[in-house]
Design goal:
two-stranded antiparallel sheet; eight-stranded parallel beta barrel; hydrolase; TIM Barrel; 10 strands; about 10% strand; beta-glucosidase activity; alpha/beta
Length: about 375
């Protein structure tokens, strides 16, 4: 009897070791990313079939202390940026004035969230205490109210603070003072109002500076908003390649990490007036060949692995293709990016609602169907 029991134990142990060895699929080193290939051909009149993606790894379980942040990130769902409005020097100067009806359209289309880019620094004093103009605060309040009454989540950020990017040290105090006022003003807002520290840190605002400023801003916000979800992204224009350099306060688990995605840039920004030498890119198409789809998979898998390792939820805060690309390519690319994000558990917000990248044509007062159906099939 004892001998039989021992033999059975050894058999069970051997089987366990064999199964453990088979399941130990550890990712290799970071993948090499191919250079984008421009394909010039005749526009396709019909919208091709949407690509599908297969996740490359089994998600790791979320720890209890991080569960609320992941739930709040998932709540953002599918969003759209209200671009070219409040981040203009003054609302309307870039052609967009926000209207109440826009929020109805956004809700009815099936979006969950509006990300509101805001140039707070254009509406605040240059000298201490850097007071934000009361009328401008009231305008932002109106936007928040329009979203909340329609059960839309709202993300408020600091956008186009160009002076901070160019001269970080002289503008640090003002940047922190802006967040102190914003946090105090919205301290009683519901959990569906999110703060995003800064859009696309770049230029002289290096990773070293940005890590310092971001952590100080988080501490200031926490004085009045202990549980508020704060969204923060890496440097170099919220690049996924800078995620490993992003330093966050380990004890603060109510943080969501964001990145932006516009690759291949020659496709998404062809003919963009603000991008130097982008005219030769006109006519660049995007096709759902394996190389193009593979690039998105590999890029997003890098973000997913970072998220799992650091137990931080992910929000894809911007992605979009400029209107000068053909509609069929824009549809394919937009769908591919949105689905790749969703299949890795990332919420997202498309750039943007009704301007050059727009999902809505405000002149025709109709949705840009190739983009809308790519975002919300």
């Amino acid at each position: 009897m004892i001998g039989s029991e021992i033999r059975r134990c050894w058999l069970v142990l051997g089987l366990c070791l064999f199964l453990a060895a088979c399941g130990n699929g550890i990712p290799s080193s970071a993948p090499q990313i191919e250079s984008p290939t421009a394909v010039i051909d005749t526009p396709t009149p019909a919208l091709p079939v949407k690509p599908t993606f297969t996740p490359t790894s089994t998600p790791k379980p979320i720890s209890a202390e991080n569960r609320f942040a992941f739930e709040q990130a998932a709540r953002l769902g599918r969003g759209v940026n209200l671009g070219n409005a409040l981040e203009a020097p003054n609302e309307g100067e870039w052609g967009v004035v926000l209207e109440e009806g826009y929020f109805d359209l956004i809700k009815q289309a099936g979006f969950d969230t509006v990300r509101v880019p805001i140039r707070w620094n254009a509406h605040a004093m240059d000298k201490p205490p850097y007071t934000i103009d009361a009328d401008f605060f009231a305008r932002v309040d109106w936007v928040v109210e329009q979203a909340l009454v329609r059960d839309l989540n709202v993300i408020l950020n600091i956008h186009h603070y160009n002076e901070l990017m160019e001269e970080p040290r002289p503008h640090k105090e003002r940047f922190l003072a802006l967040w102190e006022q914003i946090a105090e003003h919205y301290r009683q807002a519901p959990d569906s109002v999110y703060f995003e520290l800064l859009n696309e840190p770049n230029n002289t605002l290096s990773t070293l500076y940005w890590n310092e400023y971001a952590q100080e801003a988080i501490r200031i916000i926490r004085r009045t908003n202990m549980r508020r979800m704060i969204i923060v992204g890496p440097g170099d224009w919220n690049s996924l390649w800078k995620l490993n350099e992003l330093q966050l306060p380990e004890e603060d688990r109510n943080l969501i990490v964001t990145f932006h995605y516009y690759e291949p840039f020659q496709f998404t920004h062809q003919g963009a007036e603000w991008v130097e030498n982008s005219t030769p890119w006109l006519g660049t198409k995007w096709t759902e060949d394996e190389a193009s789809l593979g690039r998105i998979r590999r890029d997003f898998d890098i973000v997913k692995r970072w998220s799992e390792k650091n137990q931080r939820p992910i929000f894809l805060g911007e992605f979009g293709a400029y209107y000068k690309a053909d509609d069929a390519s824009r549809h394919l690319w937009t769908n591919a990016v949105a689905r790749a994000a969703e299949e890795r558990g990332f919420s997202w917000a498309y750039w943007e609602f009704c301007a050059g990248f727009g999902v809505y044509d405000r002149e025709k007062q109709t949705w840009n169907e190739p983009i809308l159906t790519a975002l919300i099939p």
